[in-house]
Specification:
The protein has 17 helices and 11 strands. It is of the alpha/beta class. It has 3 domains: about 100 residues, dopa decarboxylase, N-terminal domain (Up-down Bundle); about 200 residues, Type I PLP-dependent aspartate aminotransferase-like (Major domain) (Aspartate Aminotransferase, domain 2, 3-Layer(aba) Sandwich), CATH 3.40.640.10; about 120 residues, Aspartate Aminotransferase, domain 1. The chain has a 7-stranded mixed beta sheet with strand order 1-7-6-5-4-2-3, sandwiched between helices.
Length: about 525
């Protein structure tokens, strides 16, 4: 985007002038040079290998064991970026990066991050930077309307709903688990004041599917609440009957069901839990329902995919990562909560030095320190604001549609090769594929791909089958990059399938007989 490069150039000059005021001339030159370096890095990233090939400990031999006593010349430091840092970088923005899920990047977001860092505010309450708070309220309202989530989740609603930018979906899950824990404890004590807090908390239990992200299970560890990983149906979905059976089992054991995490777009296969079935069960049993839509939730800005979030009205909280598919740099995760009073009740710690005359329980004028784990927070809303204004809704929709089309292209290439199979339907930007036959062949293919380092993918297990996940991640990915990736997969598969061991296996007999 030419206009974004122009903004980057203007910011380069601004940063140079700010540094000139605050520091020496060499620091100003260093800052301006780094901004140019960022632009050059982005424009030429396709030429870099996707995966770093350094060995563990490579950097310790290159960097002294102690900091310099006297400051070094900035040109020496700048030269060490290519010498020391870049060899150890796995290039997440490379068009050959197809692992995990996208990590957003764009010039508007880079500029927003730079300006936020330059301003350097810490917006934990309204008074510490009114613009930091109010812009976040507004962009969260914008984003919620783009997704068409129920209005009661928005800060501008009449009720206590509201949105906040957390660092990651992992943080959002942990925040909501802790709030659910506090809410349930207070609810039970209100019914029976004789109950002991510790006794109640020791009996609380949470649920999610065995396909949910690892961070969900980790939230249970961090929040001291047992997290049951429930089985899924043949489509990888957590269903109502599975959840209800588990709740009934645990109640018979004297446990207290407290928290459910449902996923829209699982990490392994991008499956979608049955929210319409899970929601009423959670509501009827006073269980907090959190929806983790970290990746796939971004696609709900497209009308043709909104049917996948049917049942969201039952949720207590809902999270989508802007830093995955919406061109906003990490970290930036959008969390909406239907009743933000529960957040304040769980996390409010008052000190005289935190008070100000504009304190309010109004979600439109929040003190966000009550809505999160840390006290301090960055001005993340700036990069969201820049991305949404410069791309517009239509630009973001076009970006996601393009990446879905590229994934479908890769899927067609896989289907044309009879040695391979696609294990789950191509969903969003994800293709799960494997070499037919025993897992050993897919394992060897993946090991060859990682050793080559030309493209970066990761594996998953689907019904005991090892699959390789191909995800369209970089905003720079084009059709030529998809074909490059397939050629790499296909050529390395040639090496494996040409061996005598492969030819003599049951796999080749299976192929021969169709």
């Amino acid at each position: 985007m030419r206009n974004c490069l122009d903004i980057l150039e203007r910011l380069r000059i601004l940063i140079g002038n700010l540094v000139k005021i605050m520091d020496s001339e060499q620091f100003r030159d260093f800052a301006k040079t780094i901004v140019d370096y960022i632009a050059d890095y982005t424009e030429n990233i396709r030429d870099k290998p996707a995966v770093s090939t350094v060995k563990p400990g490579y950097l310790y031999d290159l960097v002294p064991s102690e900091a310099p006593v006297k400051g070094e010349d900035w040109k020496t430091v700048f030269a060490d970026i290519e010498k020391i840092i870049m060899p150890g970088i796995t290039h997440w923005q490379s068009p050959q990066f197809h692992a995990f899920f996208p990590t957003g990047n764009s010039y508007p977001a880079i500029v927003g991050d730079l300006l936020s860092t330059g301003i350097g505010c810490v917006g934990f309450s309204w008074i510490t930077s009114p613009a930091c708070t109010e812009l976040e309220v507004q962009v969260m309202n914008w984003f919620g309307k783009m997704l068409q989530i129920p209005k009661e989740f928005l800060n501008e609603s009449e009720g206590p709903g509201g949105g906040i930018i957390q660092g990651s979906a992992s943080e959002a899950t942990l925040v909501c688990l802790l709030v659910a824990k506090d809410r349930m404890t207070k609810h039970l004590k209100a019914i029976n004041p004789q109950l002991d807090d510790g006794e109640i908390k020791s009996k609380l239990i949470a649920y999610t599917s065995d396909q949910s992200n690892s961070s969900v299970e980790k939230s249970g560890l961090l929040g001291s609440m047992h997290m049951r990983l429930l089985g899924t149906d043949d489509q990888g979905r957590l269903t109502g009957p599975i959840l209800l059976k588990s709740i009934e089992e645990d109640r018979k054991k004297g446990l207290i069901p407290c928290f459910v995490v449902a996923t829209l777009g699982t990490t392994g296969t991008c499956s979608f839990d049955c929210i319409e079935d899970l929601g009423p069960i959670c509501n009827e049993n006073n269980i907090w329902l959190h929806i983790d839509a970290a990746y796939a939730g971004a696609a709900f800005i497209l009308p043709e995919y909104r049917y996948l979030m049917a049942g969201i009205q039952y949720a207590d909280s809902f999270d989508v990562n802007l830093h995955k598919w919406l061109l906003v740099n990490f970290d930036c995760s959008a969390l909406w909560v239907k009743n933000t009073n529960h957040l304040v009740n769980a996390f409010n710690v008052e000190r005289m030095y935190l008070n100000h005359s504009y304190q309010s329980q109004n979600p439109q004028i929040p003190d966000y320190r009550h809505w999160q784990i840390p006290l301090g927070r960055r001005f993340r809303a700036l990069k969201v604001w820049f991305v949404m204004r410069l791309y517009g809704v239509e630009g973001l929709q076009a970006h996601i549609r393009k990446q879905i089309e590229l994934a479908e292209l890769f899927g067609r290439l896989v289907e044309q090769d009879r040695r391979f199979e696609i294990v789950t339907p191509v969903t969003m930007g994800l293709v799960c594929f494997r070499l037919k036959g025993d897992n050993i062949w897919t394992k060897r293919l993946y090991e060859s791909l990682m050793k080559s380092g030309k493209i970066y993918l990761v594996t998953a297990s689907v019904r005991s089958q090892l699959v390789i996940r191909f995800v369209v991640c970089s905003r720079l990915t084009e059709e030529r990059d998809v074909k490059f990736a397939w050629n790499e997969v296909s050529s390395l598969a040639d090496t494996i399938t040409s061996t005598e061991e492969y030819k003599e296996s049951d796999n080749i007999k299976y192929l021969t007989h169709g």
